[in-house]
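Why does this matter for the project? Reviewers at the last site visit asked to see concrete outputs rather than summary tables. In response, this paragraph embeds two records directly. Each consists of the residue sequence and, immediately after it, the corresponding structure tokens. Nothing has been edited or filtered.
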Amino acid sequence: MSEASITSTAVRGVKLYRLPLYEDHRGKLTVGEFGTTLPFVPLRYFITYQVPGSDVRGEHAHRACAQFLTCVKGACTVLVDDGVNRAEFRLDDPRSGVLVPPMVWAAEFDHTEDSVLVVFASHHYDPQDYVRDYEEFVAMTAGTG
């Protein structure tokens, strides 16, 4: 048995999560409780899978929505960028997750053939919440890094 750990990163508001692991003769179990272990109670989730390894998903920021990403099968790399600092994290274990707060640019790439990425979102889908132009994003975040 292990405890959850949360690590801050150089990218504003981005945190890496290592969720608890429970293991016995029946197999392994990892768990996160929304509102306690995990940072918010989601209003939406989506799953990406069968993403060609050369394709990039995401490539946007949200004005208000936070997201928690975990790759429950296979692996992918998550890039996060606050307009000043940038980092990449390889999600290759269902115990690992990345919190992407509002106004952080994120992209997912380098998917393995079997990757299954689950994303929990703090808000319902709203196309007005998206910032899809990177230069606009940088201008909006100037002075906040």
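We now turn to the second protein, recorded in exactly the same manner.
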Amino acid sequence: MTITNRQKELLDYIVAAIREKGFPPTVSEMAKALKVSSKNAVAKLLRALQEQGFIKRDGTARGLRVFDAFQNEVQAGAISVPILGSIPAGGPIVVEQHVEDWINLPQSLLRGRRDVFLLKVRGDSMEGAGILNRDLVIVKPTREVRSGDIVVALLHDEATVKRFVEIRGKKYLKPENPKYENIYPQGDWTVQGKVVGVIRNLE
């Protein structure tokens, strides 16, 4: 079953209310937001959303829980962010077959960004920048970066986290650990995103 535009409009309104206020709107508030006079029209939309697994209701005025397409519960002040197992070359970054998991992160941590993804760091090449093995880096998808930015680059279909450096037109990737040498990529390579945050793995 495909979600209709009207159902999506209601779902988006409910999600926004939960994230901003911490609780779902009442049926009356939904009717007002949709500019309909009949609560039955809202009830019909809610039934359709429940049948499709987007919401669960308990019969009380605000007894409504909302789930995204990956069955993560939408929570106040939180945004669901994907952890990618790999990054595809070309095409959209976040596609289902590359997603290992989803986690809810505080909006304050993401500064309102909704287009970010997470990538698990392997190795110690960036420990000088405070990025350790098995940490999660928060990445904003972009090809526009400046010299000195920490980036996710795609080299030979392998993602690596390094500092991007450009000096007099020469571009290279710099590790933040003296054990490793600078990478001067040969052939095709691309910057897939800029690291905008780090989540420490304490295990």
